[in-house]
Specification:
Blueprint: H1 3-9, E1 11-15, H2 23-27, E2 31-37, H3 46-55, E3 65-70, H4 76-95, H5 108-128
Antiparallel strand pairs: 1-2, 2-3
């Protein structure tokens, strides 16, 4: 994955931010909406596209477009930087392939300990019973 190539494919859109903020919110378009077309990307290989589309399927639209918003700051430029960093981190985490788990054998001492405990609980329960006459 080459971050520089992917950043060139991003599309940004400035929108008026919602919520409290008074006149600034009403006048200035400080919220940034980032969109990235995963399926039609030239900088990603087919394997990377499938990995991203599987891991981020809840965040993708039906057309395979990833949309991220940021309205944390009053500055449009800072919001653009924040959402770009967030996007790159999200893509990097999606491309990580987890290691396969190696099933380990249960140690002999653990098995023996479990059987011994079962035997002792069994004996205590047997001792609680009334003796046969």
């Amino acid at each position: 994955m080459e971050a520089e190539k992917i950043i060139t494919e991003l599309t940004f859109k400035a929108v008026r931010s919602s919520g409290a903020g008074g006149q600034n919110v009403n006048k200035v378009s400080s919220k940034v909406v980032l969109s990235f077309d995963v399926l039609n990307s030239q900088s990603l290989s087919e394997e990377e596209k499938t990995l991203i589309s599987e891991k981020l399927k809840t965040k993708l639209t039906l057309d395979g477009i990833l949309i991220l918003n940021c309205d944390e700051d009053r500055s449009q430029l800072k919001n653009k930087e924040i959402v770009t960093k967030r996007f790159l981190k999200l893509i990097q985490n999606a491309l990580v392939i987890p290691k396969k788990r190696k099933p380990t054998k249960i140690p002999r001492s653990v098995i023996e300990k479990r059987i011994k405990e079962k035997r002792t609980t069994s004996e205590t329960k047997q001792n609680r019973k009334k003796p046969d006459v």
